[in-house]
Amino acid sequence: MAMDGRWHTKLGTLLPVALWAGACGPPNHSVQRSAKAAIADVADTALPAVVGIHTSKGAIQGSAAGFLFRGKGGATLIATNHHVIWGASAIAAETSDGESEPVDIVGVDPEVDLAVLRFHSGRSLSHVLSFQEEETLRVGDWLISMGSPGGVLNAVTVGVLSARGRVPHGTFVAESFVDYLFTDALVGPGNSGGPVLDLKGYVVGVNAAVLGGEGGLGVVIPSRLVERVVRALERNGACAHSSAGVLVADEPALAGNAAIRVTWSDSGEGTSGLHKGDRILKINGDRVWRAREFEWREFMAEPGTKWVLEMMREGQRISVTLILRRISQEIFAQEHGAGAQTRRE
User: Fold this and answer.
1) I need a labelling partner for 36 at 20 to 30 A (CA). Which of 16, 150, 176, 343 fits?
2) Using CA atoms, how far apart are residues 281 and 251, in angstroms rounded to an integer?
3) Is 241 a catalytic residue?
4) In the chain, what are the domains?
């Protein structure tokens, strides 16, 4: 995934990671020992559920990572990045016991860059990982990244949650809707699709790329989005995301309260029922304070979802009902500029 010099899924060189209890003052050795023990415990438990993903794309052989999770009816499924398997003529998964076997594609979501695979044999394994909402994490919390850097299966690196935020324009369709996680856990080629875990061993995200090239922060798809997508892929083979047909921005003050201002609406006063300049206060009775919250909710909702918006328009408080539509590359380009596209390896 060449990202115009800023993004690379050929992730940076694997280097040792030093564990420090704090940035200031002498290290707290008891905390260091506790963190190291927790990391080792998570590695012991989680690594058997991490797999290597091997692909053939013509004469090119690729290696990346994925992880096992429990599907409907107890099925063993594999989550990885879409760009890892995109265009592959053959895909195999290598488990921690060294066994490698073909896998079938259950479904893909190119917009979010996720895919779900299944062992061709229907093989079931006992070691699987579970999801935990990343909202419980604080900046500075430890994160554990697992994958197959350089083809080395079951490698672990450690860092912290460095930040949350958006990614550079033109990278993913999801970029305009999702606050990604950023971590300084060092990773290498082959970490794409691997899980990122908290110190309890729960998946809080999936490795996707590196920001700023080799040695930059790792970009992690947040687990709330990952779980929604992989469950939809298991059911339907695809995952649809929604758009309200507007662009929004934060409005710092409206009669003493924060609001969200509509900066663009499809067809002016068209199909969305929203007008440029409208101030959105509530969605289905729930107060929304920031544009990013609005965008996250629309992207996570199913197409066809009905929203009743409470708004201010020209000094009057009104309600508008709209039906969220499925977002597509065409709608995304219309709303975010004709040059916008999803970039992949």
Assistant:
1) 150
2) 10
3) no
4) 1-236 (2.40.10.120), 242-326 (2.30.42.10)
Structure tokens at 16: 């040792």
Q: Which of 10-14, 26-30, 255-259 has the lowest mean pLDDT?
A: 10-14
Give pLDDT tens digits for 176-185. 788 899 999 9
Single out the catalytic residue among 63, 148, 192, 242. 192
pLDDT of residue 178: 86
Which pTM value belongs to this model?
0.83
192 an active-site residue?
yes
Model confidence at 122, in pLDDT bands (50, 70, 90)?
A: very high
